[in-house]
Structures are given as C-alpha cells and as structure tokens.
C-alpha cells in the first residue's frame, strides 16, 4: 500500500496548532478561575503556609460564606478543624458537604471518608463504624476496612473482626490468617473463663488449622489440655509447637516442664529442651533445663552448671545472678545485699519488649497494649535482644 506523505506534511502543523489553541484556552480558563477565586481563599492559604491555623480558619470561613459552592474549600476547612481537634465543627462541614445534591460521586465518597475520620478521631466509634461501612464499594474501601478492623479489635468484637479480615483476605489486602487465629484464641479464652472447656478446645483446634505456623494457639491448647487433666495431650501440643515454631518455644518452656512432670515424661522434655537450647541458647530454655534437672536425681549443684555453660557463651547478667544465688560467698554476711543488688539490676533485663513501639512489660503479650500491633513481642527477654 502506498503511503501518502502529504498527510503528514499537512496534518502535523494542524495538530500542533490545535494543541497550542487548547493550551491557550486552558491557561485563560485557569486565569479566569483564579481571578474568580475569592481573596479570602488566598489569605487563608497564606496563613496556612505560615502555620497560623486560627487565622486560616477565619479566612476560609469568610471564603466559604462568599462562595458556598466551593467544595475544595469545605474539604480544607473540615480537615483543618479535625487537625485542631474541633471535631464537632469538622463533622458539620463534612455533613454539610454530604447534604449537597450537586456533589460529584468522587467528592461524596471523599466527604464520607473525611466524616468517618472525624468520628474516629473524636473517639465516637459507633458513628465511625457506621460512616466506614458506607465506604464499602468506594475508592476508600481498603482504608475503611482497615479502620473497621481496628475498631472491632479495640472493642474485642472478634466475630465482626474476623468477618472484615476474611473480606480483606479475599480482596488480596494481605494475609490475615495469623490474626484470624488470634481472634479464635481470644474467643476460646472467653469460653474457657466461663468453664466451657470443650467449646474452647474446638476453637483452639480451629486456630491451629487456620495458622499452623502461629505459636499462640498451640500454647493455649497445651494450657487447656493441662487444665482438663490431659497432660499427655498438652505435651503433644508443645511438641508440635517445637516442630512448627521453634522460635516460640521459650514462651512455653516452663509450661513444658510442668506438663512433662505431670505426664511422667521429664526425660523426653529434657531432651527436647537441650536440643533446642543448642540451636538457640535462650534464657527461658536454660531455666527450664535447670528446673528439670534440679527436680530430678542430679540435684541443683549439677543443674546450676548449666548457668556456667551459658555464661561461657553469653555475657548474661540474668544467668550470672541466678548462678550466684546458689553459691556460697567467702563473706556470707554480705550475700543478701549483693544478691539484692544483682536482682535489682537484672530485673529490667527479664522483660519483654515490643519491636514496634518499644513498650516493655513483665509478661509477654500477643497484641501490644501500647501500639495494638499483633505478634510484635519477640519470644526472648530484653537482655537477649
Ligand atoms: Zn507496641
């Protein structure tokens, strides 16, 4: 096919000319818009840039009064009110926007989202929940679900949290299987606290199936079996924990010592602990080995040799304090004071610390009470981090 070059020669300047014309029209439109924009708007903007929020708000209110149709100004004003903690006024601005019939769909969704944020910040969780639910199917859906999940977790409404997490997982918003297992564990603990042990066990078994790699359900299951008088099943749950999530074994080491004693299987537990201690010399594993040997035929003097072995590899004040507690000093009269000083110094080292926010606690938490992050506490003590 023959290609006619004359079209290009003729077409290019025409296209160029049309483009230039369009850009001129755009520029003119922009200039007219900015001329039309009220002075107060620029005044407000100026204040905002100088971080004078009070004056900015006054100027924006004036601008909105002069020109009630300006959507962007409403958004700016609403966000300013929220940032200043004036939630009632922020809500009023966003509700006013939503009540307008001429609002585009995008702006309506934006206003709905802003309103949800107002309620969230104000701590009005039931109204926030309602506003967030209205964002289902909009561009803000993912954010809204995340906020809803936080609300349900905070109010410990585990079935609702589970429902949202399921939807988020289906929408490929992440892997929520570990969280789902936590929700099941939380519900199981509530049943267990009411004495409904079978219901609790069913939920914990479901939690293990939901997230086989998660440690909590196996540990809670072992505790429940122990409570139900089934030490063998408890031991089995902890053995499976050691296989599936060995890093979490220090959290269950003292429980393992207890149930192994009850099941008459201390030697098996000892072998398991020593095997894992060799891979990962954790303080809790060390303590569990010492506890098992002290209770056994070997006695405490031999058992405490483990502290010395530990100190050869780890400069641990905690291990040194524990070892010294069983030793006889050359000046026995000062031993209580020395021991007290060492224990005082080593106590903060035996805490657990949230990897997300640094919050420290004497007990291990599955969800940080400081920052609400799940599984942010390592299974090791502060001294070992
Ligand atoms: Zn935290």
Task: Please summarize what this structure is.
Helix content is 70%, strand content 1%.
The portion of residues assigned to helices is over 70%
Describe the strand arrangement of the main beta sheet, using strand numbers: 1-2
Kindly report how far apart the N and C termini lie. Answer: 75 Å
From the spread of the alpha carbons, the general shape counts as elongated
- The oligomeric state is single chain
Catalogue the unreliable spans. none
Order of SSEs = HHHHHHHHHHHHHHHHHHHHEE
Question: Which labels suit this protein?
Answer:
385 residues; mainly alpha; two-stranded antiparallel ribbon; 2 strands; binds zinc ion
Structural description of this entry:
The protein has a two-stranded antiparallel sheet with strand order 1-2. It is built from 20 helices and two strands. The mean pLDDT is 88. The protein has helices at residues 6-36, 39-49, 53-66, 71-83, 87-99, 105-122, 125-133, 141-154, 158-170, 177-193, 197-210, 216-227, 231-244, 249-263, 266-279, 283-295, 299-303, 305-313, 317-325, 335-346; strands spanning 352-353, 360-361. The longest helix has 31 residues, at 6-36. The protein is mainly α. The chain binds zinc ion.
